[in-house]
Every structure is written in structure tokens, then in C-alpha cells.
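Q: What residues go here?
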């Protein structure tokens, strides 16, 4: 291998230059306000909560329709009695 080529020269292109990048504008906006009201200090209605509420509405609607359909079924009490037709009468003898 070539002795004039060192490993520090090989890694020179991989290093990042953080000094070239200035401070982001987002960092200046992230300030905690100690005397602010509670809902101005924290964000409670996040996009995740909003999407969860939007999705839960159709799911609860489907659940309501399903429970209503099952609850409206009418089955007579005679449906659970034993059959005593001609086939069952022969088995009893």
C-alpha cells in the first residue's frame, strides 16, 4: 500500500462541517413560557389525537349498527325446543 496515503486523508471527506450550518429557525421558536396559561404552554390537541378521533367516529358508528342489528333479532322460544317430528319419534322407540 502507498505510505503517503494516510487514514486521516481517507476520512476527511466523511466528516461533517457543522460550522457551515447556522442555527435553525425552529430552535428559536421552541421556548417554554413559564407564566403562560396552560393551553398556550402545551399542545393537547395533537395531529395524532385528531386522527384518532376522526377514525373512532366511523368505527363507533359501525359498532352501533352491528349491536343494533344483533339486538333487533327476534327468535321464538319454540326454536330452542326439541323436535318431536317423525324422525325423532322412531329414535325414541
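A:
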Amino acid at each position: 500500500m502507498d505510505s503517503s496515503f494516510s487514514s486521516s486523508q481517507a476520512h476527511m471527506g466523511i466528516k461533517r462541517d457543522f460550522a457551515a450550518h447556522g442555527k435553525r429557525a425552529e430552535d428559536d421558536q421552541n421556548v417554554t413560557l413559564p407564566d403562560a396559561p396552560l393551553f398556550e404552554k402545551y399542545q393537547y390537541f395533537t395531529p395524532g389525537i385528531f386522527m384518532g378521533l376522526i377514525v373512532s367516529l366511523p368505527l363507533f358508528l359501525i359498532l352501533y349498527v352491528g349491536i343494533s342489528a344483533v339486538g333487533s333479532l327476534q327468535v321464538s322460544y319454540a326454536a330452542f325446543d326439541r323436535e318431536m317430528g317423525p324422525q325423532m319419534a322412531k329414535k325414541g322407540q
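A: Context that may help when evaluating the design: The mean pLDDT is 76. The longest helix spans residues 47-71.
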